[in-house]
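Lab notebook: predicted structure, single chain.

Context: the supervisor wants predicted structures on file for every construct in the current expression panel, including those that have not yet been purified. This is the next one on the list. No modifications to the sequence; it matches the entry in the shared construct table.
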Amino acid sequence: MARSAFVFRWLVAAGLCLSTALAGPIVILSGTDLTGVTQFNNQTGANVLINPHPSPVWATSTIGASWISYALTGAGQSIAPNATIDSAGSITSPPTAIFYQSLDLDGPSISGSLQVWADDTTQVFIDGVLVFPLSLPIDQGIYCVDSGIGCRPTLGGTIPLTGLAEGAHTIQFRVYQLWSDSFGLLYEGSLETDTVIPPFEIVPEPSGLSLLAMGGGLIALRYLRRRSTG
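Prediction complete. Output recorded below exactly as produced.
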């Protein structure tokens, strides 16, 4: 009886092992997809890598992201058209460019965040919901803006990514050029998903089934032999 209880506990433990979360972190880096599939913009489709200002004027990636734009609009390259700012410090024209990052999660996100920098500034939406607004009135600095999301290391915005449901999601960045200079976007981060494989969903190969059946038969024979010699 003790042996049967042991085997039962072993099978339950094996099932629980199969049901543990197996997913690793999903890393999100700007500039990793230049084909227009998961990262794209409303101006030219596929994003392009641009020349950043020498550090520390523009933030430097810590985990591998790159400054991107819809064209070559970085330091020493072409200039993007300005958005319009009224006398109250509000932007009254559409974004200079809108960038997108698509995600397809295999489980709900249980933790994670995204750091975002822009020149000159940006607002961020997730699935059409505003999660980081512009800082108004616009506070002009020597480089990009002096509040909200800007381009310098200390002016990055943090976007929480916890609580996203399983399935497809889109992060949208509405980026504004304000002062006829370099223009671009940088973002990097990661998230963890709670991906669970249900117990006993993985079916062993025939050889594995044979071994399991053989083991069960041997246990049964031994039990019967003990009873007969009892």
